Amino acid sequence: MTGDLVVQMLAQGAQMFFVLLIAPLAVGVVRRVKARLMRREGAPLLQGYRDLAKLLRKESVIAESASWLFRAAPSLIFALTWVAAALVPSFASGLMFNWAADVVALVALLGAARALLALAGMDVGTAFGGIGSSREMMIATLAEPAMMLIVLTLAIAAGTTRLAGVADFFIAEPLAVRVSLALSLVALIIVALAENARIPVDNPVTHLELTMVHEAMILEYSGRHLALIEAASYLKLVLYLSLLICLFAPFGMAPATAGVGGWLLGLLAWTAKLLAGAALLGVWEVSIAKMRVFRLPDFVGIAFIFGFLAILLAFLTRGAVE
Amino acid sequence: MPELSVSGAALGALAVAAVLATLMRGWALTLVYPLSGLAAIALGIVDLRVLLGGLEATARLPIGLPTIGLHLRLDALSAFFGVVINGGVLAASVYGMGLDRAKELTPRVEPLFPLFAAAMNLVLIADDAYAFLFSWELMSLTSWALVVARHTDPESRRAGHLYLVMAAIGTAALLFAFGGLAGPAGGYGFDTIRAHAPGPAVAALVLTAALIGCGSKGGLIPLHAWLPLAHPAAPSHVSALMSGVMTKVAIYGFVRIVFDLLGPPAWWWGLPPIVLGAATAVLGLLYAVLDRDLKRVLAYSTIENIGVIFVALGLALAFRANGQNAAAAVAMTAALLHALNHSWFKSLLFLGAGAVLHATGRRDLEGLGGLIHRMPRTAVFFLVGALAISALPPLNGFVSEWLLFQAVIAAPALPQSALRFASPAIGAMLALAAALAAACFVRVYGIAFLGRPRSDEAAHAHEAPFAQQIAMGGLAGLCILGGLFGSVLAQALTPLLRELVGGGLPNGGSGPTPFSLIAFDPSRSIYDAPVIALFVAIASLTTLLVVHRLSARRTRRGPAWDCGFPDPSPAIQYTASSFSQPLRRVYGAMAFAARETVVMPPPGAIRPARFSVAVIDFVWNVAYAAPGRAVLRLSERLNALQFLSIRRYLVLMFAALVILLSIAAITI
Fold it and tell me: Is residue B126 part of a domain?
């Protein structure tokens, strides 16, 4: 029994470790695919790790007007995102603390990380920090409700708000093609693009003043603080890819009782799907242009409307069945 | 009975404090707030004993109306709201001990503060319609007098005027509600009312009247217009009481009338509170996110939270009417916990706003900034309040939010299609409100406390006095503890929930850890705040340790980077208006027909460019300005009646007599 417990604990720890380990690689894949499609050589796949190591080694320059909040925020943002990312089932569905992964709480954890980041952006008292925070919160007021509607739809379909339960439902009924779930998928993809500051909502490689959102908030960060913020944004990408995989492509995920061998297979399947997702994101990013900031409400609004239609359908169909 | 005599003694102490403050001068006045605080502690302990012990106390005093007397009763429902209220009164009293007596107009506030506290407690223990309405009016009038404490200020006078009108309308509506409940027999004691349920038509009337009466006190749109004027106009610790606590008395009134006195609910009772509440939640925050006055933003956010509570109450009614008691318990727990949580963080935020107002003399966000350096402790407490009200885990606002979403998810099981159609929209509006709340409080905190000071006053602010820090710190601690151990609070409500909706949340022991908050069933939904907080704490500590080991650890202070264009002037920063500009363009264009106009001078002219924003408050125009104009026009017409000849007056009187007699002849 105690041996079983230790294995379970290790599996839970492994999940936390793996999401962190693979995050820079996933970002590397996105960048590499983009570069190759633009007929550039591009940075090596492992550039993400090197960037983080370089930032950690550098000294951190902090603005004179910054307060303790500015220094405390990066570790908290990183920790919140890491915990949220590790709560999403990746290679196995019934891990020890799977009951703690409530979808509503997951959305709220990400909301807490975002609020801290927006506050940190305003702390120094520069023009760009304010611009980033203000736009980020505007986008959030559209993306977060859309996300909430999506998770409520899924929860209604699966009859539970536990993410593991939702994943089990999708494993058990892989052919449950329903209109409301298809709408949720589209909405979730749009939310994922908005939340990760990807094209067309935001461009992660630009520092063009007028279009910056995410980069404007973190402009004052450097050294180890910047490393943590960057790592948190890598983790967020893994989180959303993981979430999409876990909900809409759960095949290959090991059940709780699979044992170490099953888990390893599940881990392989998850890694492959994750990197494939990252490659798809790269293809998407080169094939579409960045939008103007004030066109964004229309784009993210689509996610909100789709989420609303999805939950409406979920309410009506479920009510009719019962 | 001993419970009520302790309560009576405490209420007496409050009355003594009021008399003392009226008659005495000098040092005796410093006793007012300590006395109020002690009375609040005594009342709170009694309420806790009654709530946790499942007790009930009644009394009948030979005062009041001749045939009825004065009925008092302290049951679980009164006791729960008593805990809410006396917690707020205690915090405000402790804060009051730190007030600067020379500057804060105390002679006009001190006699009324304890009376206001006593009146709110009296509403809770009233057990007949007369006592209820009397104490309700006493509460309205004392709070009105506190609003106009600064009566030399025209804004305060306008706020007081509007408040008085709305309070009168609200009380009149409650009068109708109790008239309907008492029926033709006129049994005004709550026990006689409870004994016979009114018919559906009367029930609809009572429900409407209760929504108007309690909704106007709580700030339900469209009855909210007085609230963002009156709450900020009062001294800050009174604002905290009005916003954090008095609105909960309105909730209590609604719960008492609709859940207790009105008998078993019909399914459609839930619809009006759900629809009005959801509209209130979103609109309240849209007002808040565009406003530039620190205290008014807080008042608008109160409106939002009252809307959320009414949504939860409406869902509880709908579930209860359909016999789905487990879902009703989830919704009701969400409503009650949110009332408790809101009383904590809203009081905290208003006390913080008071500290800022005292330290800088300013309430407009555009003149604040950088207070985290000058007021470090207040800044920490205010941050806790701001994150809690944004419903972020692991703080207490998220607990009630989570329960509310669980209740929404259960709504597909409702048999009525009207409710099933409404519920997804409600879910969408609640989600929107939650996201807007985060934007609103990031804005408030970021503009007021972070960045660089935007005025001299903000640059020379000073930390709040020690007593005020204790008041704010205590409330901040409650917000954290209530967030971590929300399941314990939910469990404590079980007896009350059995009484109100016939069921409670599942036992805490059935979850994976003792502090799991469980909705419906452990296999369905669990929120375990301590475990998640522990995960985050472990992750942060690991991060800190690893970064400490691996990194260079060197830190240097330098000028801000700002893309290579740092400007030493604080005017370069984003302001409250510029922060909300994207939100105004996205939501304001729909909700308030917000339009921006830029007037650019022609090339060569030396006039400055002008930018202006036009916003239309449709609710005010339709629900207040139009009826106000109609009343004025009507009174001008009626004015002609003052200048008639005696002959005509005699004709009018005769006609009136004939009409009345013929009505009497037809109806009898």
Answer: yes
